[in-house]
Amino acid sequence: MAELSFSRENKWLRRLLIMVSFVFITVMLILPLVQVLAQVWDFGFKNFWEAVTDEYTLKALKLSILTMISAVTLNTLFGLAAAWAITRFRFWGKGLLITLIDIPFAVSPVIAGLVFIMTFGRLGWTYPFLEAHDIKIVFATPGLVLATIFVTFPFVAREIIPVLLSRGTDEEEAAMLLGSGFFQLFRRVTFPHLKWALLYGIILCTARALGEFGAVSVVSGHLRGKTNTLPLHIEILFREYHTAQSFSAAAILVAAAILILVFRNILEHVSEKDREF
Amino acid sequence: MKKLLLSALIFIFSAFLPVSGNFLLAADVEINNVSYDPTRELYDEFNGVFEAKYKADTGKTLEVVQSHGGSSKQARTVIEGNEADVVTLALAIDITEIEKAGLIKPGWQKEFPHNSAPYTSTIVFLVRKGNPKNIHDWDDLIREGVGVITPNPKTSGGARWNYLAAWAFADRKFNHDEAKVKQFLKEIFEHVLVLDTGARGSTNTFVANGQGDVLLAWENEAYLALEEAPGKFEIVSPPLSILAEPPVAIVDAYVDKKGTREVATEYLNYLYTPEGQRIAGKHFYRPSDPAIAEEFKDQFQLKMELVTIDDPLFGGWEKAQAKHFNDGGVFDQIYTR
Amino acid sequence: MSYLSIIVLIPMISLAVESSGLGVRGFWDTVTDTRTLIACRVSFLCSLAGALVNAVFGLILAWVITRYRFPLRRLIDGLIELPFALPTAVAGISLTVLTTDNGWLGKPVFDLFGIRIAYTQLGIILAITFITIPFVVRSIQPVLEQLSRDYEDAGLLLGAGRTRVFFQIVLPEIKPALLTGFSLAFARGLGEYGSVIFIAGNIPFQTEIAPLVIMSKLEQFNYDQATAVAVLMLFFSFTIMFFVNRLQAKISRFTGEH
User: Fold this and answer.
1) Mean pLDDT comparison of A36-40, B182-186, C205-209, highest-scoring range
2) Which of A200, A239, B28, B215 is the most exposed place for a label (fewest CB within 10 A)?
3) CA–CA dist B28, B60 (Å, integer)
């Protein structure tokens, strides 16, 4: 890939910036990561394997993946729709919608969990209805999914909106004038531009959904093997003085994050090839 | 693009399958035991024994689903709709809150022997190997240069026991002069370096991060900390401490809804059998049955004098909570600017 | 729209209803309590500091990742999401181990400068910075990738200095994203509980954060007051979000015209 003149002329600036990045990354990200891995290493492979293959760890992992997938799918669909509506149409209440999307970021996850309890729990105002129809939301899987959705809700929309804003609507209008339908328009004109933003959004959403602790902890009830997600399981292991197993299980999450990274890199690679044709 | 979508779909379904598969293997009877931490090991062993016995007696399979977390947080989830059949928590006041919410009938504390506490514990000091700061009793804590680690009584049940044990000591020492007792507590908390939110956080601060000279801890947790870092610490039992009684109860509203009262009662009763008591002792809880406790006399310092929460000094949990720990209470007055 | 209202609006209404149980007077007394206010101030200042650190380094990181090709670039790129993937408790514990006065990072800092990181406000800032790194970087990155370099090259050809090109051409383009990232980081930092709690000393009036005040009220089964403080926090972050959104709208109106 050709370097553009702007950065090539700036050898020392370039070096400085890269160095600053490395130092920051090392101190803020790599050191903590190494710390975690070093602890896992100290505990030895046997401990690690026991922790990872433990029945409840596996169940927790499955549950985490399930909630993650549900949350990411729903949030992606919603994020696309919302971002599109916000940047392409004018309508009443738009300002409010934009701010509402951000609420989950503004709310402490613990509070987020609490509001679901206040709504769907025994003290909540929907409880008589739910009880009458024998529906369980909080302290069951639906509650976990809801809480995860809530917490990761803005990621996709938030990533796309700036891109759509900075692109403007010219190309779409041109396509429209040339008579293309909505889906064709979306797929051919809009999608290629926001592909990266969408991908980042989904990745952020996935990582966050997998690691979410605060909100889920409040609505879970911690029923082992039933409503215990992996981050909750890790916390409980730690609190039970099983530091070794706890950090080993955490290593699973780190591995998941790395897997996501690999997956994204493959995607990136594939799409770069696509562009050459 | 289509291929990508398709594989994503397959991935989603494959993730659902194993989870739904679990329902097919469900046990005949299932009860939820909402407990606090760290009782995981204790109940892992106890549940196994009880499940086997239940199978032998009735021919049905039983699964006890465990839940662990901070004691009052766990109580809150039960109030909020977490359908526990039995609760085995750290503090009586947490179960009283469930009672107030109308889920447990009043008088639950008389339902089982020993105030419904099948096992007890107490507050001890964990010090570094060789006890370099020579800490043996509560007034050693306020000596110059001693750093104390305890969790925050506002957020941790265990920390409330720490605080009350120190109060009981000071009350004795200063002959019920409450102003001096408060001053003593204030001095202790001036020696507190880090106020973690839970007992486990404090242990980690003390053990893994090397902060402070003495950790105030539940006896059973002190033993767990010893196990985690063998040879680095030792337990000091002060002559006077407090009797911590982690109570158990049946959640009436939920067992009646689910029809599990019988098995839940049997489950809790089994904690009181010699076998149940020994399992408790093995996991560092003091068995409530004096005969079984005697079997563990090498493990526990049984000669400590233990004040109970129902002592006139405290007048039960409800009074103690209101006086000391609620907003604006004595503990808040210790921390004023 | 209806999805939004189920997920966000209904719960928010519940929150308001719950705290209204206190009445105006009770609400006011709860939120103006000195200890609560000081905890809010600690939270506010620490998240502000964390978000500022991230705004600066996040911008540099995003720039370096998108514009330069160098060894380990992919690695850096991939590590950005790490804070989300680590459960907060593990992150908190590791950061604490790292920064106590005998930790890998804490010891040299303490030996050289006599500064303690863990169990001080510095520790809180560090934890918040760690947790919110992805927000800024990942907000700016897509915009930078989209940004056509023609303008920059044109600017350079026309003889503008590099500094000028950056401030007059690049910065205006990424400003909305930068602001978004900053405000997200800030708001997230304000509410962060799980990781901060381990590294903060939690000493009242010094290192006690607002979410901890909420938790300790919950521990007393005091739902009303807990939600009252929550509403106060919500109000803070909502105001910030709203302000930033307005700013963003203004900027995009300008940039939308050329």
Assistant:
1) B182-186
2) B28
3) 6
Angle at CA of residue A68, ends C177 and C236, nearest 5°? 45
ipTM of the complex: 0.77
**CATH code of A196's domain:** 1.10.3720.10
Domains B26-117+245-295 and B121-244+304-334 fall in the same CATH topology: yes
Residue A162's domain spans which residues? 39-276
Chain B residues with CB-CB distance to A132 below 8 A: none
Q: Are A141 and A63 in contact (CB under 8 A)?
A: yes
CA distance B277 to B297: 14
Confidence of residue C57 (pLDDT cuts 50, 70, 90): very high
Burial of B189 (0-12, 13-18, 19+ CB in 10 A): buried
> ω before A128 within 30° of 0 (cis)?
no
Query: If one looks up domain B26-117+245-295 in CATH, what number appears?
Result: 3.40.190.10
Distance from CA of C97 to the nearest CA of A (A): 8
Taking the Cβ of residue C40 and every Cβ of chain A, the question of whether any pair is shorter than 8 Å is answered with no
Q: Which chains touch A (3 or more CB pairs under 8 A)?
A: B, C
The top-scoring range by mean pLDDT among A32-46, B177-191, C86-100 is B177-191
d(CA B252, CA B105): 7
The answer to whether the Cβ–Cβ distance between C190 and A108 falls below 8 Å is: yes
Mutation site, A17, A84, A103, A171, interface C, largest C CB count within 10 A: A103
Between the CA of residue C26 and those of B331, C13, C23, C226, C231, what are the distances in Å? 22, 19, 5, 12, 13
Q: How far apart are CA C232 and CA C210, in angstroms?
A: 10
In a domain, A144, yes or no: yes
Q: Which CATH class is domain B121-244+304-334?
A: alpha beta
